[in-house]
Each structure stands twice: as structure tokens, then as C-alpha cells.
Amino acid sequence: MALLEPSTITILVLTGIFSSSIIFLISAGLQIVFGIQRILNLTVGSFYAIGAYVGITFINFFLKMGFSVVYGLLFLILAGLSLSFLGPTIERGVLNFVYKKEEAFQLLATFGLVLIFEDMIKLIWGSYPQISDFGILTYGEFRFLDTSFPVYYFLVIISAFLIAFLLEFFIKKTRQGKKMRSVADDIEMSEGLGVKVRNIYILSFTIGTVLGTLAGALIIPVTAAVLGMGIEAIVLAFAVVVIAGLGSMRGALLASLIVGLLQAFITFIFPELTTFVIYLIVIAVLLIKPTGLMGKEI
Amino acid sequence: MKKILSGNLFFTLILIALLALVPYIAPPFYVYLTLTSLAYIPVVIGFNILFGYTGLLSFGHGLFLALGMYTTAFLMRNYTMENLEVLILASALSAFIVGLGVGYICVKYTRIYFALLTLAFGMVFYTLLIKFTPITGGDEGLRITFKPLLLGLDFRYLPHLDFLFQPYYYYVLGIVIILTVLAYIIVSSHFGLSLKAIKENSEKAEALGINIKRFRLYSFVISAIYTSIGGALLAHITSHVTPIFSYWTTSGEIVFMTLLGGFTNFFGPIIGVFVYTLLRDFIMSTIIYWRILFGAALLLIIIFVPGGISEGLIRIYKHFKGA
Amino acid sequence: MEIGKPKPKKISKEAFPEILKERMSRREALSTGAKIGIAAAIAAIVAGVGGYFGGVSTAPTRVATQTITQPAQTITQEAQTITQTVIKTETLAAQTVTQTITQPAQTITVTQIITGTPAKVPVPSEPLRFGVMGFQTGSFAPASIAGMNAARIWADWVNQAGGILGRKVELIFEDETGPVDVRKERFTKLTVEKKVDAIIGTTATSTGLAFGPLAEQLQQIWISWDATTQQGLEETLPNPTYAFKSINNEAESVAGAVLTARFFPDIRTVAGINDDYSYGRNNLEAFMAILKRFNPKVELVKELWPKPEGTDYTSEIATLKATKADLIHSSFWSGHATIFIRQANAVGLFKDSKAALVTAGGVLPTLKKDFTPEGLLIGCNSWYFLEPRGWPLREAFVNEYVKRYNEFPVYECDHAFFSFQAYKAAVERAYEIKGSWPTKEEIAKQLTQVTVPSLSGYRSFREDHVMLTSFWQGLSKHSPDYDFIILDPVISVPPEKLQPPPGMKFHDWVKTWA
Fold first, then answer.
1. Do C33 and B166 touch (CB under 8 A)?
2. How many CB pairs under 8 A join B and C?
3. No. of H helices and E strands in chain B?
4. Contact predicate B187/B49, CB 8 Å
5. Which of residues C32 and C120 earns the better pLDDT score?
6. What are the residue ranges spanned by the domains of chain C?
């Protein structure tokens, strides 16, 4: 058996990029909050899970109402966006009280939120895996070499890149984005210049939230929503941001691609190493370049 | 200062007396819970030497807990080592070696980077435990099939719970008292004060001639040894060790216990262990949604009493004294 | 059997002098304890604890054990006739199985099966308490929760019928989630604090390995639904007194291999994807060992071991797709099976490869038609709720379960139901013999002597306390009546073809396969 035939490489690369897109969205949610508020927001994993569960509820509801499955992707995006209210709620309700505290406490506060959300999901949706009626093959299949892929994979990849581009544009070009950057650089100076830090905090946290919920909503045609998915996602996203460098958005894109592709290839070539590799890379990056691939100096 | 110290001494003696009485007065299951809590005391004291006194938050302390447990189980299974004293020393030794290695790498960083790095090491150890089945028993772990000798005395003829509730209980209590006193001496010593100085202002401490990294490393290793000894004591209670003790959730629990009791006070984590164990038991048998309560408790502590229960008690005490 | 190895029954007959000796030594222990300074008070406490645990009055027990042996033999004969009918169906043809068992079943009605029994002499008035343990959360929860639901239904039915010998039953639920020390803590709590009469439930092998010895130490009856006391393929607790264990871990794959050979005789390459823990590893090992007996040329080309707490298999599925093996073996059960099938189907994995999903039936109602293709080999463990035999208890239970929980029941319900039924029958039997309420030890002894009606038919425990059952596996099929897949054809594999006989090692047993 030839180790890496062209079709094998295609499968691994495509799958890798697909995973990368989802990982990117979650880790971008981590990065933006860390970049502005300097909090490693573990809750983004819970947002991912909630996005998935709510996405399923949403799409099943709309399909029952008689809408065509063709609009499925739109409903999912709508589900993701509709959860944006969680952002301000949690930022004002919880994070607001821990900004002045030690980093360890900020981390633990978000960890507390993760625990709460995990059980809330169980309370609402139960412990059975939840499945959407929206099948992945709705948008057809794409044949390449002697293998085929659902078109939906490409839609997710495109969406993720689009979101990455929009984020970049928003942060670099718009007024709000510029304010965000100035807060990230120097809070006191920005405050002196009349930037309402409070609003910027709410904004950045909400963006972080929506990135998580969108990722969750987009993944559900491919998989089932289960308890614990948020915690698993956060572990991967955490690896990505460490590799990327905390706070770096472009780094997150690069690191997501690395992690996604590496996972696909390692699983194929050295399956026993799959669980190790991510942590080893994290340790290696922290040892060699603790600021990550594209992070600012500590 | 003297007054506080004597207050602490008084408190300690009362606590010891109470703990010694537990097997006589408490229902069997609560003796069991107390025993488990006792074994966790070295763990949280060790953790707090690193967190409360040196300012380094380890999110991978489960590694050392698991190390102590696996060292014990491994030696008992493969070399039928029976003396608990030897097993404890062996656990301490393995923690010393591993702690030195891991610590050497980790103490280069502080704050969130330190937390992430320790987390990653804990998870690597977890994966190693799962993958090296021939040595570690994989996910099923290792079972300890016989009881250890305590001070060379053989209590093997006692049934499981009788053994745990009588000789083993007092043995653990003894060890825990020794370790606690020792830790108290350490943190009150010149060394302990240096650690505090590093925590509060590392640049100033360096200017005063303290080798920061070396002191952090010492603190890390001491912390690892304490945690590992806790693991060695715990192993005989569970008589079954599994990789889960190195998983991040266990590390999180250690953090939670410490915060619950209060990391600013030497005795805080000890209170934390008891309250946590009782609380978990109560919540787990009351509702299945115990994570909500735990999460909420964590948030409330962080927001309102970051010093934990011990700070709360001191506040109440001062309030009444003031009034 | 090895020479000099005592038969289990003999041990039980002579157990009493042993217990007396132990109690004597316990008193000696107290004096030693006193020497190291804890003194007289310990003696009081230990004597209290000792008296409490050893609270068996010797005289009646001795009488009981002697009398027990005789009726036991008659029951074993009954049990034998039942197993014999199943042995005849070893041809593995679904229809023969169906026919042989249908006949006795139809003569029984549910009310006959779930009956209360009147007590002749006064029995304790307080209710019988059962600790029920299972995963309340995480991806293993669906199966556990189904079992716990079945336990509730059983308890309600029995209470409606007047209880066990007039004693109502009460269930106390505990979570199996968490590290092993917490699980042991819960077991201890149920035993010494809640004073339950038996602990029933448990899913994970790690739980079983911890609970087996603990049950023996605390002298508490423990009946496991899914947990075994196997380390790898080896049994670690061959002669228990109080621990009652599930079918061996690898049984699913043994049955799966037999049926793979039957349904997919032409496969040459196999790729395995199993959780990275003992259950998964045992299953792949057993699957390949058995399959090779039928099909020596078959080759294992890829082994994937995703982490047990995982919830995403995208990378693994890409590897499977690229491997292009003829058959994919997986022992995923509970939520993992649902996710795996959905993700695999999304990239068309089942177009290229056949699949033997030997435990996926544990979450059968979640395997919706729109993502589960026809023709996958799906295993339903001991019970398939649409099995083709007539059996009134099954129909009544399915109706009740759907009414209460708005979903269809899965195999764990059968294990749960069987455990409770067996306990009930054992108590009644021991009571019949003894004439007063039996001790835990006496009940434990009767547990291997009873054959009871469960959801899947008559079931019993083997002499080494391992559950006996047939397994149901079959090919997935879309039916207009259900939104999830059903199995057609579905085949029952008899107990002797699932696990080696007591004391025999797995690979020695495989060698005996023709």
C-alpha cells in the first residue's frame, strides 16, 4: 500500500483545512478577548457547544415550519448570531467584576462559567446526542480524483476565511476597530482620548462569543451535539492560541491551519501519537518561543 | 504577630483533637470522607506553597498527585514493597526527580504561561499513563491488592474499612501533622519570606540578591514532593490508581479546594479540603446538576471573597471584635 | 479443571468457620491496636464496626446453607434445559432462534412475571433500598440513563404489585462520573451510610475493577450492567462472593466477528477505530482473533485509537477514508457511535467500506435514517427492542418506556431489568428456604441459582457470577415506521458463542473454534 497517494493527500488536506476552519473560529474568539481584555476566556468552548445545540433547535424548527433545506446554512448563521446576547450579559454580569483581579482568578472565573454552561446544556437538551434534520449532503457532493467531498465542507471553509477577512477589516479599518486596538495597546491613554473602554470591552467580548457560537452552529450538519464537546474544543483552541501567540489574530489563522493539517496527517501516519502531538507542540512552542509564532513580546 | 501565632496554635490543637476523635464520634462514611480529606491536605499545602506563597498558578498539579499514586502502586505490584514509610519516601523521591525536570522548564515563565505549561505537562503525563499499558495498566490503571505495613506492623488481617478507619487513619493523621508543621516552618523561614518577596515584587527581590528562578524551582520541587506524598497516602484509600488523577479536571479540583479555603492564609487550603469534600458529597447526593452549583460557588468566591472561607471567617471575626 | 482447585460450592459450605476465625482475629487485632497507643476505645469502635459488618447470626445461616443446596439443583436443571434450547440454535440462523423461544414465552403474561409475593413470617417493615449507579453526564450517559429509567419502571411495577415479600423497593441514584476514588466513595457511602441492600448499575470497566474488590471487602452485593472485572482480556476476580459481573467486554466483537464472516465473507482488509481504553482494545483484539478463524487471510491494516473523552472524529474518518479498508470495525457505543456514523456518512465512508459497528445499537434511536445507510452490521448487545419473538414483557415494557420517556429503549434496559429481577428472585428463594429474611451472603448465593424473565427472555448468572445472555446483531435497514434504522435480518448469537467458559483464557478458547 502506497503511503500517500494523491487521493489520500487530497482527503487529508481537505479534512485538515475543514477542521482548521472550525478551530480557527473558536480560537479567534479566544484571541480577540485576550487581545483586548487580557483574559483567557475558556467560556468560548461553551459558546461553541451552545451554538451547536441552539443551531439544531433552530434548524429543526425552521424545517418543521416548512422552509426549504436550501436555506439551512442561513438558519445556522442566524442561530449563531442570535446568541450574541450572551456576550454583553456575561461580560457585564461576570467578567466586569474580575478585570482588576489576578490573572489566575480571571481564568478560574471563566472556568466556573464553563461548568455552569455544561450543566445548563444538560438541563435543557438532556444527555442524548442531539442531531439536526439538516443533512450534510443538501448542497451536493464534489468529486475530485477518485474521492468525493460534501460541498458543505467548502462552504464552511469559505465562511471561515470570510469571517477572518471581515475581522481583519473591522479591526484595521473601522472606527470601532481602531478604538479596540488603542485599548489593547494602552487603556489609560485611550480613556484619556475619550474612548469608552467599557463599550469596547462589551464589543470585543460579544465578537468573541459570536465567533464561538457560529463555529458551533456551522459544525452541526456534520456531527451530533454532545455533552463535553465544548471542553474538547477549548483544549484544541488553547493549543492553537499558544502556538499562535496570545492575542494574535493572524497567528491564530496560521496556527489553526498547522494544527488542523497536522492532526489529519498524524492520525493517518502515526495514529498512536494523535493525542500526544498537540501537547508536545504546545510545550515545544512555549519552550522555544513562548510568545508563539506571531505573538507580541511578554 | 505573637498573638496571631498563638491563635493559630490554639486553632491547630483544636483541629488535631477533633480529627483524632473523628473515628470515635462520626458515622463510618464521614470517617471515610475525613480520611480522604486528610490525604488531600499535603496536596493542597504543596499546591499553595507554589500558588499562595510563590505566586505561580499550576494547572497541572494532578501530575504529581498521580505520580505519587503510581509510584506506590508500581512498587507494591512489581516489587511487593510493603512498608508505607518506604513507599512514601519513594513517592517523594520520584516527585523530586520529576519536579526538578518539569520545574526547571516551567519556572522560566510566570503568570498565564506558567499555568498553560503546567497544564500541558499534566496532560502529557496523562496520555503517557494511558499509552504505556504494560507499566501503567492503561486507562484501567493499577490495583493495589494488599495493605501496607504501618511502621512495620502488619494489619492485614483487618477488613478493609477497619484498617482504614483505625490504624491507617491515625497513621495518615500523624504524617499530615508532621508535613503541615514542616510546611509552616518552611513558609515562615527566611526561604518562605524570600518567596513572598518574589511574589510581591520580583524585580525588587532580584535587586535584593535573591536568585528568583532558583527559588521558584525550590518552591516547585517542594510543592511537587508534598503533592506526591498526598498521592501516596491517597493510593491506599482508593486502592486503585487511574490516569484520571493527572487529568486537568483533577488539577482544577486542587485549585478549587485551595481557593475555596483561601490561599492567603496558611490554614485556608486545609479548611478548603474539608469543606470541598463535604460539599461535593452533599451536592452529588442531592442533585445531578452539581456543576452549576460548583461553577456558581467558584464565581462567588472569586468575585466577593477571593481570600476564600478563611478570609470570610477573619472578616466576620474582625467585624464582631470591632463591634 | 486444575487438581486441588476447590469447587466454588464447597467454599460456601465451609465458609462459617472461616468467618468465626476472622472475627476472632479481629479481636486480637484490637489488642495490637491498643499497644500502639490508641488503646481501649479502638476496641469499642472496631468491635462496633465488626459487629455491624459481621452482624450475621451464625446458627440460622448454617441451617440455611445446608438446605439451600437441594432445591438449587432443581433450578439448575431448569436453567440447563433453557440453555440447551439455545445451544440447538447454534447454527446462527435467526429463524430457528425465533421459533424455539417463542413458545414458552407466549404462555406468560406481564402480570404473571411481575408479581408480588406474600410473606409468611414477618419481614422487616422498612423498604428495600437499592443504590443505582450510572453515568449521569458525558458521552457514556445515554446508555446509563436508559438503564436507570428501566430501573424506575421496574421499581414502580414491583411496588404496584406489593413489593418484594411485602417490602417496597426504593432506588437511590448516584453518579458514576468522576475519578475512581469518587466512585468508590459513592459505593462506600451507599453501603455504610445509606445502608442499601444492593448496588446495581455501573458501566465502565474501570468502575468494575474498582468495585469488584470493594464489594467483596464491604460484603455488599454489587450487580453490574456493563462493567466487568477484566484487565485486558484476563479476569481479575474469578471467584467472587458478592460481585456480579456483566458479559465480558469483548463479547460484542466476538458476535460481530461471527456475523461479519457470515454477512461479509469477502473482506480482506480491516481498519479498526475504537476508544483508546481497555474496552476498545479488547474488542479489536477479539474481533480479529475470531474473524481470522473464519477468514485466515483477513488483515488488520489500520488501528485508530481516539481518546475516550473525544467528541470529534474528523481526522480519524479522513484516515479511514484514505485507508480504503474493506471493513471498518468499531466498538463505539453511546454517543460516540452516533457522532462517528454521522461524520463518516458525511464524507461517504460507508460507500467504500463495509462496517461492523458491534455496539452501536446502544444508541439505536439516535441512528437516524438520513445519516445511517442500510447494510451496516449493528450490534444491540443483549436486547433488540424489535426482536422478532413474541414476549409480552418486552412489548409491555417498550410501551411503558415510550409513554414515559418519549424515546425507544435500548439494551441497557434489559441488563437493568434482569439485575433487579434476579435480585428479587434470589431474595424470594432464599426466604423460602430460610423462612426469615435472608442475609446478603445468602441472597448472593441464590443469585446464581435463579433464572428469571427479563426483557430479552429468561436470563441467569453463571457460576462465576458472569451474566449469561444472547446477543442480537443484524444489518441496518430503513423502515417507514421509524425515523431511525431497524435491523433486518437480525440474528441472535447464543451465550456460549460470546465468551469463554469460566476459567478459560480468551485466546485458548479461540483455538477451540472450528
1. yes
2. 127
3. 15, 2
4. yes
5. C120
6. 8-53, 68-247+391-468, 251-380+472-511
Which range among A142-156, B180-194, C117-131 shows the weakest confidence by mean pLDDT? C117-131
Does the distance separating the beta carbons of C366 and A224 come in below 8 Å?
yes
Residues from chain B that touch C281, judged by Cβ atoms under 8 A, are 138
What parts of chain B have a pLDDT lower than 70? 1-8, 322-323
The residue type of C81 is: T
Interchain CB distance below 8 Å, A226 and C311: yes
Query: Considering CB atoms only, which of B161, B244, B290 is closest to C218?
Result: B161
Output A8-13 pairs: Cβ under 8 A, ≥24 positions apart.
Answer: A8/A268, A8/C322, A10/A144, A10/A145, A10/A147, A11/A147, A11/C318, A11/C321, A11/C322, A12/A261, A12/A264, A12/A265, A12/A268, A12/C318, A12/C319, A12/C322, A13/A261, A13/A264
How many Å lie between the alpha carbon of C181 and the closest alpha carbon of chain A? 21
pLDDT reading at A98 higher than 50: yes
Is residue C422 within 8 A of residue C434, CB to CB? The reply is no
pLDDT digits (tens, 9 = 90+) for A238-289: 888 888 888 788 888 999 999 999 888 888 888 888 777 888 888 888 778 7
Q: What are the pLDDT digits (tens) for B199-224?
A: 877 777 777 777 888 888 999 999 99
List chains adjacent to chain B, taking adjacency as at least 3 C-beta pairs closer than 8 Å: A, C
Q: Burial letters for B143-171: b for 16+ Cβ neighbours within 10 Å, e otherwise? A: bbeebbbbeeeebebbbbbbbbbbbbbbb
| Best mutation target, A280, A286, A287, A297, to test chain B (most B CBs within 10 A) | A286
With contact defined as 3+ CB pairs under 8 Å, the chains touching A are: B, C
Interface size A-C, in CB pairs within 8 Å, comes to 131
Number of domains within chain A = 1
Q: Would A294 be classed as within a structural domain? A: no
Look at chain B and report how many structural domains it folds into. Answer: 1
- Containing domain of residue A237, as a range? 6-288
DSSP string covering A143-169, please? EETTEEEEHHHHHHHHHHHHHHHHHHH
Residue of B61, B110, B116, B259 for testing the chain A interface, max A β-carbons within 10 Å:
B116
ipTM topping 0.90: no
Residue A1 belongs to some domain of the structure: no
Instruction: Select from B113, B121, B127 the Cβ nearest to the Cβ of A276.
Output: B127
C318 and A141 in contact by Cβ < 8 A? no
pLDDT of residue A137: 74
Q: What is the CATH number of the domain that holds A101?
A: 1.10.3470
Map grid coordinates 469518587 to a residue.
Answer: C182
Q: Give C68-247+391-468's CATH code, choosing from 1.10.443.10, 3.40.50.2300, 3.40.630.100, 3.40.50.2000.
A: 3.40.50.2300
Cα dist from C155 to B217, C119, C190, C420, whole Å: 58, 18, 18, 9
Residue A131 within a domain = yes
Is residue C69 predicted with pLDDT exceeding 50? no
Per the CB < 8 Å rule, is B153 touching C36? yes
CATH fold, domain C251-380+472-511, is Rossmann fold (3.40.50)
The reply to whether C251-380+472-511 shares the fold of C68-247+391-468 is: yes
